[in-house]
Amino acid sequence: MGWGYVLVNHTMQVIEDTSLHNVWQLMAHLIKECGWSVTDNVEMLYEETSWDEIGKCVKRGYKSHYETWSFD
Q1: Which of 8, 17, 20, 23 has its Cα between 20 and 30 A from that of 35?
Q2: Backbone angles phi, psi at 41, to 5 degrees
Q3: Mind listing the pLDDT tens digit for each residue in 12-34?
């Protein structure tokens, strides 16, 4: 576990890591430069309390730095 928070874009099937300090800058970057939209279904999950939910997303094929074996 590293950054503490992940943004899960359910529309694009992507997970991005962030810290609470940088979340707004990252969101602006993702919207302006990476094709994310303000209408996307984005969920912010805290690694410490949402590890199982993050694992479910990764196992469903979301692009992320996480490996599926991390959740076994």
Answers
A1: 20
A2: -85, 90
A3: 999 999 988 899 999 999 999 99
Instruction: Determine the Cα–Cα distance for residues 43 and 15; give it in Å rounded to an integer.
Output: 10
Task: Identify whether the C-beta of residue 24 lies closer than 8 Å to the C-beta of residue 18.
Answer: no
Cα(44)–Cα(16) distance, integer angstroms: 10
| Closest among 52, 66, 51, 31 to 12, alpha carbons compared | 31
> Radius of gyration of the chain from Cα atoms?
12
The domain spans of the chain are 5-71
Q: Look up the pTM and report it.
A: 0.84
